[in-house]
Amino acid sequence: MTPFLLDERLANDTQPLADLPLCRALLMLDARYPWVVLVPRHAALSEVFELTPDDQQQLWREAGQLGRAMKAAFNGDKLNIATLGNVVSQLHVHVVIRRHDDDAWPAPVWGHGIAEPYSPGEQQAIQAHLTALIETLDLRG
């Protein structure tokens, strides 16, 4: 069996938050948006349909519960959940909180502007906040 390895581009653009029942949760390193990427810990997947039906349900459970909690915690106007994979083919799901006054509104965040890095203190604070938020979720099916 091939081990799970995180695509190098995802690894370079994110910081680990937690391992959920199915996915590794990663903080996207763009301070413009509260943004988490979920990557199922299976090797060599690029499409949702490649997951078992149970894992597909688990993926949406994790994305939905995390998104709901993030929207409340970050006072979002809209929640975007998406799988694209046009640049990074490894299956991953973006969970992004949007606000009417954010840099890209109402357009998608992908390809809009240049990512703004967190200051070390900001990154540490949002990582702690998201990790604590994740710990409150009941993600078992």
From TrEMBL:
Domain of life per record: Bacteria
InterPro entries according to UniProt: HIT-like (IPR011146), HIT-like_sf (IPR036265), HIT_Hint (IPR026026)
Pfam families linked: HIT
Domain HIT: residue ranges: 36-105
A GO MF label: hydrolase activity
Stored PROSITE patterns: HIT_2
Key words of the record: Hydrolase
Name of protein: Diadenosine tetraphosphate (Ap4A) hydrolase
